Amino acid sequence: MTRRSWLVLAAALLCAALTARLGVWQLDRAAQKLALQAGVDAEGQRPALANADIGQAQLHRRVALRGTWVAEHTVWLDNRPMDGRAGFYVVTPLRLAGRSDAVLVQRGWAPRDAVDPRRLPPLATPAGEVEVAGRLAASPSRLYELGEGATGAIRQNLDPVAFAAETGLKLLPLTVVQTSPGTGDGLLRHWPAPDLGLHKHYGYAFQWFALCALILILYVWFQLLRPRLCRQQQP
Fold first, then answer.
1. Whole-number pLDDT of residue 54
2. So what family is this one in (predicted)?
3. pTM (predicted TM-score)
């Protein structure tokens, strides 16, 4: 083999090894996400937390809380689809019974008015003490937003820290995704399952492995098979 042939072989092997390693890395990432999902599922099977037990590092735990709605601070998060329809996520603070703090509750989904997108649908919020069952989550999902966030009833995003300063409420650094039926509030609660991006990792792994195979196939064809066929066809 000539020096050029050795260089081509080394480059092909290096690229094939790199792409194969990247494919394995993507599979490792998928395995980590599966382990994370198993942990989330395990947390969801533990006993529900009550008012006195709710804390800062217990995401995905089930809760059964008692408190009163702070209806005047209800926020409608815009551009949140559910079941293929455009609408709002309704978020209302729940002042916890027997405590001085409150927690944001993602109560459910309401459709957007097709004629006037700024018109809010009717929402029944019971007065007095209520019981809310759900699971603990981080802040509501954020969407891309130009400029500073709005401060009215309809918003694109909701920052709990800024919202606490705005309302004067002492908010816990987490939210509750309500799963229990509301009392005639008309909200849907077909919450999407958390997207761990498994298909993305598997797709990237397939692409890297395919590129690795392509590099080896091209090397074999152009460096081994094609020159041999050319020599055989010469008179």
1. 84
2. Belongs to the SURF1 family.
3. 0.76
